[in-house]
């Protein structure tokens, strides 16, 4: 017994020491108490807004937050709080006590992506936000920016509002808004920067992203610059594998096509003709074909879906990924018995496995063969899918193979 007690005395200090490493999160009963502590200690407040289903959130909690150097920085500079934004059956009473506050945070501080990290001043005023995690050193640097008024996101926003004619502030705000996942402000600040600077001076590697961000409508100055200098924009975007047409067509699709999709009978031919007449400088065929596939998929109009996918592939089949081909094919397999649709899906599926013999793609091809009546070939390809499958998926593929051999439906 003495030996056991001695062992426990040795172990407990070690455990205690281990628990002190990493970020020390508060277990206060209210936001008011957290703010009171921060004000008393003259520290900023760091709030981790997370959900139980978010992978990056889990990574930050399990790998980044427990690190000693992370704990040293955050515990020195912040009062730290974890705020669960979703609700589950397994939630503790402590988590449930914060439900209302979590809902308020989501609304008041526009928490839309996870993880979102909010930084408040010692007086409880929001001054900075960070979207997404990162490795330890990078994350510490992001949080350090939240302590400096020159780099605090909310501080920049206030400067932008007070100085509408300052191009440099507009530029910094657009860049900060992008990092903060504030898309509305990102577009607004970038558009302001483009308007203030103007002209061909924007056609540089440094400014091209701001030009793209500022092209929020066909009436924006940025849109006009991209339209009138398409060749130069293409050259600047070459490394990104994008072109001016991609940006222009995306803007016009948002303005002219998307509002029409609420209708149950969209006349795509008329839309295409109208756009060609009023905007002859842009090729909308690719984005229009892509939108058509989504439209007819939602309508469950499989013959029209088949034609739309074939049109989309015909534009440039090299650009259609194996994943997209497989997705198109599987949608038909699950939802349609029409022979023409099934044959088209079989063709798409075959193209996908010619590009990549992923077991999931092989499984789709085998299922389509089976549904069209080619049982022997279906079994052969399903056996190949089983051979290539990982242990997690193999059981499902084997079950499908057994159904094929017994002559049972797999759909």
Automatic annotation (TrEMBL):
One of its GO terms (cellular component) is cytoplasm. Residues 8-148 form the Thioredoxin domain. It comes from the Bacteria. This is Thioredoxin-like protein. SUPFAM superfamilies: Thioredoxin-like. GO terms for molecular function: protein-disulfide reductase activity. GO terms for biological process: response to stress. It holds the Pfam family Thioredoxin_2. Residues 1-18 form the signal peptide. Keywords: Disulfide bond, Electron transport, Redox-active center, Signal, Transport.
């Amino acid at each position: 017994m003495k030996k056991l007690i001695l062992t426990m005395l040795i172990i407990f200090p070690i455990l205690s020491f281990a628990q002190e490493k990493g970020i020390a999160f508060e277990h206060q009963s209210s936001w008011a108490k957290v703010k009171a502590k921060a004000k008393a200690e003259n520290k900023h407040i760091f709030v981790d807004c997370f959900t139980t289903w978010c992978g990056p959130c889990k990574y930050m909690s399990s790998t980044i937050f427990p690190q000693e150097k992370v704990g040293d920085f955050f515990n020195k500079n912040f009062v730290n709080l974890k705020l669960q934004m979703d609700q589950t059956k397994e939630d503790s009473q402590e988590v449930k006590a914060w439900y209302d506050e979590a809902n308020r945070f989501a609304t008041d501080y526009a928490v839309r992506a996870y993880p979102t990290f909010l930084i408040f001043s010692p007086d409880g005023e929001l001054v900075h936000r960070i979207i997404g995690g990162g490795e330890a050193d990078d994350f510490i640097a992001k949080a350090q920016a939240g302590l400096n008024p020159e780099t605090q996101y909310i501080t920049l926003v206030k400067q932008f509002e007070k100085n509408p004619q300052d191009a440099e502030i507009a530029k910094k705000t657009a860049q900060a808004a992008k990092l903060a996942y504030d898309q509305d402000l990102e577009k607004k600040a970038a558009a302001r920067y483009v308007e203030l600077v103007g002209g061909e001076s924007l056609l540089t590697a440094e400014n091209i992203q701001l030009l793209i961000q500022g092209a929020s409508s066909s009436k924006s100055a940025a849109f006009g610059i991209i339209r009138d200098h398409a060749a130069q924009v293409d050259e600047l975007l070459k490394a990104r594998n994008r072109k001016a047409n991609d940006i222009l067509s995306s803007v016009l699709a948002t303005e002219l096509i998307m509002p029409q999709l609420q209708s149950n009978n969209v006349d795509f031919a008329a839309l295409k003709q109208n756009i060609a007449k009023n905007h002859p400088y842009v090729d909308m065929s690719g984005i229009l074909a892509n939108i058509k596939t989504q439209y007819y998929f939602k309508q469950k109009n499989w013959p029209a879906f088949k034609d739309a996918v074939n049109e989309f592939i015909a534009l440039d089949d090299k650009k259609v990924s194996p994943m997209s081909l497989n997705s198109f094919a599987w949608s038909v397999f699950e939802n349609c018995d029409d022979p023409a649709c099934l044959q088209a899906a079989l063709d798409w599926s075959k193209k996908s496995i010619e590009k990549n013999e992923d077991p999931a793609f092989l499984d789709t091809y085998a299922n389509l063969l089976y549904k069209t009546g080619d049982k022997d070939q279906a079994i052969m390809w399903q056996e190949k899918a089983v051979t290539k499958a990982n242990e997690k998926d193999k059981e499902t593929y084997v079950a499908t193979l057994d159904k094929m051999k017994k002559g049972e439906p797999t759909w």
